[in-house]
Amino acid sequence: MQFTRSSGKRFYKRLFLVGVEGTRTECDYFSMFNSAYVHVIPVASREGNSPKKVLSALKAAVPRFQLRDGDYLWIVVDRDEWPEEELELCRMWALDPKESPGQYKGFSLSNPKFEFWLLLHFEDGMQHTTSKACREALCAHLPEYKKSLVRSDFDAESISAAIQRAKTLLGAGDPTDWPREAGKTTVFTLCEAIRQVDADELAKMMADLSGSTTDE
Question: What are the residues facing 108 on neighbouring strands?
Fold first, then answer.
């Protein structure tokens, strides 16, 4: 299926293609960020969910979309028990200026799993650093959680709280690297990028509208 971007004289939705491991949880979550100025499209691999497969699926998806300079390509994976060389492959891809030079790229990892990032929307998560503990704690906040998410459970305030908690837990760690210790996540870097682009595009629209009014 070919993606067709809506056209416009000046404004268009900035595109975020996000390679993810899961076909439900991550897709539900990142789709919540879609707005009038940002289009977030999760891309899941059909051939396995290892970091290497996620990267391959994202690369394979690129030709289907009308990418413009300034669009984004991002990988989001879990630490799990994946080999470090696969995680390094994703990190180096994100840092390589020769890969998709017209687009911004990023790599985010949750240690141990994406559920840890979700948990930070409700608490600091410091006591829940194993996969089982993360899931149990998350279910305490979301009793109906079964890998699918409800938009109303993740409002702007809770996302801001998760971003701040993740930054605090990461401390002086490099957000472009992947956290080796359990109880840390860099998913906040993607969320901040989406929010910043959304705010910037809104500001441009308001400035243009103000200019048009003045000209009249």
Answer: 76
